[in-house]
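Quick note —
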Amino acid sequence: MPPLGPRFSPGNLRAAADLVAMATRHAVVARSALPPEAIVRKPDGSIVTAVDVALQVLILTRLEAIFGEVTVIAEEDLSSIGGKAAAESHCRALLKTWGYEGGESGIVRALSIGGHAGPTRDVDACWVLDPIDGTQGYVDGDHWCPCLALLAYGTPVFAANGYPTVRGGQLLAGEAGGGAFWSPLEGGARTRARVSVAPLGADEMLRVVAPARATARQIEMRLEVGRSTGHPCTLVHSDSQAKYAHVIAGLADVAYSRRGGGPGKYVWDHAGAVLLAHEAGAWIGDTDGSAIDCSLGRRLEGNNAVICAARGIGPTIASALAERDRVEGVPRARSAGGIA
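Predicted structure written out below.
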């Protein structure tokens, strides 16, 4: 594990995990009274809400109070809801309700510091934050989660993800080499996350995660990939890093996200789950069995896929997806490292 300075003590990291749990609880309440004008369509067609932005302000402000200034990669910025007066007003109202006292200058600062774009393998500490991963699911009532990870020289060494829709509402947090632990969002005892490695029985159903809004082609592709293991296959619908939580929780057997012909997935959509799945004992890797490299900046440009699997099926799934890349003409991404 890369070295961390004394400010990243176990107690301070526990405070960061508690902060994610609190933010998740805030988001659950805010969703129950989310006005349509607080939902904004981004230029790329995705959506963002005032809750996403308010959570980012709150989390980054509190993190800085605990840890001091740290490099940050975060999804939202000043343009996320900028110029949308009703959404901005709702964001300020949420922050006031949550006890935020940073004022306008604090809001501007918190939304300005998350734009680090370069590689992080030479950065001693970098927060990676997605205040709400799966915003469409948040709005629709499907799966979503606030996700926080800490990179040390480009490698995830701490993560805390809030999963309000998994196991009755759980925080999953862990440190490199220390395991991953579930705890109720409302507080309570921690239990260690352990992914099953018991092989599937000959006729046992393989559970593959598919997007909640999966197209017919996506559904068929996931069924084909699942059947490559020689088992009958069924689908479990989930999006965001909650898809990996389903595998870690024993609710599914495999979840994956492909790069395809694109530039690479965003690091904030995967970094936390990469560490948590690894610490829970899941198979986590790329189509060639290599590690997931989170050190290249805002995107996972060095990987063709992020695959999370239980029950010993990871290598078979990886081979099936590698063959699909070959058939589709997707070139092999080149990576410098990651979590093995």
